[in-house]
Amino acid sequence: MSGTGKLWPVGWETLGQWGEDAARIEPLAGGVANDVWSVRVNGQLAVGRLGTRSDADLAWETGLMRHLDREGLTVPVPIPTADGRLFADGLVVMTYLEGGPPETPADWRRVAGALRELHRLTQGWPQRPGWRSSTDLLHAETGTRIDLGAMPPESVARCRAAWARLTGRQTCVVHGNPNNPGNVRMTASQVALIDWDESHVDVPDLDLVLPGNAADLDDGAHDTAAQASAAWEAAVCWKDDYAVRRLAEVRAV
Fold first, then answer.
1. Which of 6, 88, 197, 210 could form a disulfide with 214 if both were Cys (CB 3.0 to 4.6 A apart)?
2. Any idea where the Aminoglycoside phosphotransferase domain is (predicted)?
3. Pick from 30, 37, 18: which is nearest to 197 by CA?
């Protein structure tokens, strides 16, 4: 029960910290780790995402969003609570972005341009707390949702051989899942990248394995990135059917 007498679902009572008129509207498609709803705060349509990320993790993500917004990239911007916090008890409230998914090769080329701007703006960015990059996993066993100890040794060897090809590259923030059309909102004037739940610091080419090779990577770069990306998704999702399919794309050592 909130201070206004509303009966909230478990966890969502925190939404009352965005003001007495704050309200949930309807569920939205979101990541498997979160409960995502359209909400209304301060009379405006917004998006609320409730999950179990740590405060350090959410501080990293919301700080990144504010930086990218200040630099002119179109991203969901955190809306502060009534007392000025960017998140509370695992809940983040963000601006709602209009638009539809990319559909044409020209659309995907615009997405590639937005991703390259993200990478330019975040060179040298600190790693998300608790995460590992693909090349960190040449030596580390775990990082957030990845546990290489749960995979067969032969599968780990294949993944690490793919990631080893990225050794020595400059790193930056990667979105983590931009080839999913649902994570992009396009209008005639802007490209918005949404759902930053998988973003972390890694090699930028991992973001550029896009439909139709929209980022125009040369054959060698595209092969390296595609292999490393398939290995990453196999490790993150192990061991559901999708992970098994992605691992099958990674060449044997």
1. 210
2. 25-214
3. 30
The pLDDT of residue 144 is 83
Instruction: Cis check for the bond before 239: say yes or no (omega within 30 of 0).
Output: yes
Nearest to 121 by CA among 113, 110, 129, 132: 113
5 pLDDT more than 60: no
pTM summary value: 0.93
| Tens digits of residue pLDDT in 80-106 | 999 999 999 999 999 999 999 999 999
Closest CA to 160 of 148, 175, 168: 148
State the angle between helix axes of 153-164 and 241-248 in degrees (0 to 180), rounded to the nearest 10: 60
Mean per-residue pLDDT for 197-215?
A: 97
Query: What are 132's two structure tokens?
Result: 């590992």
Cα–Cα distances (Å) from 164 to 121, 159, 168, 224, in that order, read: 25, 9, 9, 10
Beta strands in the chain, from DSSP E residues, in sequence order: 23-27, 35-41, 44-50, 91-95, 142-143, 146-147, 172-174, 184-186, 191-193, 200-202
Strand partners, 173: 201
169, 163 contact by CB (below 8 A):
no
